[in-house]
Structure formats: structure tokens, C-alpha cells
Design a protein that fits this description.
Shape: globular
Low-confidence stretches: none
Number of strands: 10
Mean pLDDT: 95
Number of helices: 0
Radius of gyration: 13 Å
Strand order of the largest sheet: 2-10-9-4-5-6
Largest sheet: 6 strands, mixed
Order of helices and strands: EEEEEEEEEE
Strand content: over 45%
């Protein structure tokens, strides 16, 4: 099984930007929806954004206008561009797949995003 590998997290000040990446063999050719989730300390996992097989995108209200999800097929990578970061964006971010029965990837370690005020 391929494994999802997330990267790009870090520590930034409020208002800063980060670009997260998630890659795995065949990820973008699997016709799956590609999703980003985040888990803040002491809170439940929260869905952040998805990009679907037809390239339509969707976002949780709290990140609309600030985050952009995209995919690069030749690189088998999905990105989450995060601008105007806020302290409440601090969380462990992870990627997953959905809407593709029979396709499996091992979960990644996630990538930590810390935004200071």
C-alpha cells in the first residue's frame, strides 16, 4: 500500500502563509476526492477542504477566501495554500482520500501548523 506523506507545516506569525503538500504514488490519478483535515489540541478532527475528481473544490467556512486547495497530477501531489493565517488555524493537518471504493492508502504522520499572534 502506498502511504500518504504530508509536509510543509511550520511556525508562522498571524497573517503569514504556508503551503502544505500531500503526496503518494498514484494519488491524483486515483479519481478520488482529496481532502485536508486538521486536529487542534483538545478538539475533534475538522474537515478543512476537498478537491474532487472534476477539480471542483470546497472549504469549511472558517477558511474560505484564505485557503486554496489544488492538485498537481504529474507530481501526484495535492496542496493546501494557506494565507492570512490565524492562531485558530493552529493544528495538525493531514490529508485523506474519499469517494473511491477499493482504493487505499496508509495514513501519513500529518504536518503541524502553529500560528502565533
Amino acid at each position: 500500500l502506498g502511504q500518504l506523506v504530508e509536509s510543509g507545516g511550520g511556525s508562522v506569525q498571524a497573517g503569514g502563509s504556508l503551503r502544505l503538500s500531500c503526496t503518494a504514488p498514484g494519488l491524483t490519478y486515483s479519481n478520488c476526492a482529496l481532502d485536508w483535515y486538521r486536529t487542534a489540541a483538545g478538539k475533534q478532527r475538522e474537515w478543512v477542504s476537498s478537491i474532487y475528481r472534476n477539480d471542483t473544490t470546497n472549504y469549511v467556512d472558517s477558511v474560505k477566501g484564505r485557503f486554496t486547495i489544488s492538485k498537481d497530477k504529474p507530481k501526484d501531489t495535492v496542496y493546501l495554500q494557506m494565507n492570512s493565517l490565524k492562531p485558530e488555524d493552529t493544528a495538525m493537518y493531514s490529508c485523506t482520500i474519499s469517494f473511491c471504493p477499493g482504493v487505499y492508502y496508509l495514513p501519513g504522520q500529518g504536518t503541524q501548523v502553529t500560528v502565533s499572534s
